[in-house]
Structures are given as structure tokens and as C-alpha cells.
Amino acid sequence: MDEMKIIIERNEDGFWGYAENEKAIVGGGDTVHECKQDVLDCIETLKELNADNKLEFLEKEYELVYKFDIVSLLSYYKGIFTNSALERITGINQKQIQHYASGHRNPREEQRLKIENALHTLGKELLSVEL
User: Fold this and answer.
1) b vs e for 73-95, b when ≥16 Cβ sit within 10 Å of the residue's Cβ?
2) Alpha carbons 29 and 34: distance in angstroms, whole number
3) Are 36 and 66 contacting, i.e. CB atoms less than 8 angstroms apart?
4) Residues with Cβ within 8 Å of residue 27, at least 6 apart in sequence
5) Domains and CATH numbers, the chain
6) Nearest to 115 by CA among 95, 81, 91
């Protein structure tokens, strides 16, 4: 199964999503959920085009993989994770996290991976919780 990466970014109007390698696939919305749904609606619309205009990749099976830039990710989860909480799970100073969230600085690859791995670890821990 092929993988199609959808990049999610935040801008002044909300969230914007686009396929990394397919120019025709785009979507937007006030929330990430709305943006993802708009991307899916775009794909469905493209599938309905006649055979002469249909994009080749739509003929194959594919999986959508969503990828955030760091500013958009931190902005999206701002109401859920405080900078202090992110510092606790990542080991990155919360002032530095604020610089990343505001877009004033971009994290090095090592810092980006720290954030990604910390969130994945937290997600695995939460999945193992039983109540």
C-alpha cells in the first residue's frame, strides 16, 4: 500500500493541508479535524472526475499519513499541553518550546525528534491505561 503524506500547517485563517507529492490535493478549516475532512472531500471529488482527468495515484490503494510542522503541532495542542508539561516530557526548556510554538525559532532535527518521540511515548502510555 502506498503512503500519501498530508502536511498540516497553521496560518492566520486556520489550518491548511496539502499532499506532499500531489498538487491537486488540498484542504483547509478552522480546526485540524475540519482540515482533514476537507482533504478527504477533495480526494473524493477527484475520484469522481471522468477517467481522462483522473489522477493516476487514485487508482492505487494508499494510506494517508498526516505530518505537522512544529509551529502547527504546538499551536494545535496548546490548549491540551502547557509549555511546562511539554518541558517535563521532552526535557526541552519551556521558554525554548515557546520560541518554537511562536515560530521565532525552528528546532534542530535533534530537538524536533525529541518532541516527536516524547509525544509518541506519552501516547503509548495513555493507550495502555485501563480504568
Assistant:
1) bbbbbeeebebeebbebbebebe
2) 5
3) yes
4) 16, 17, 18, 35, 36, 37, 38, 39, 40, 41, 42
5) 2-68 (3.30.2390), 70-127 (1.10.260)
6) 91
Angstrom distance (rounded) from CA 36 to CA 15:
9
Give me the tens of pLDDT residue by residue for the chain, a chain 131 residues long. Answer: 788 999 999 888 899 999 998 888 999 999 999 999 999 999 988 888 766 667 777 778 889 999 998 988 998 888 899 999 999 999 999 999 999 998 899 999 999 999 999 999 999 999 999 99
Rounded CA-CA distance 5/2 in Å is 10
Place of cell 493507550: 127
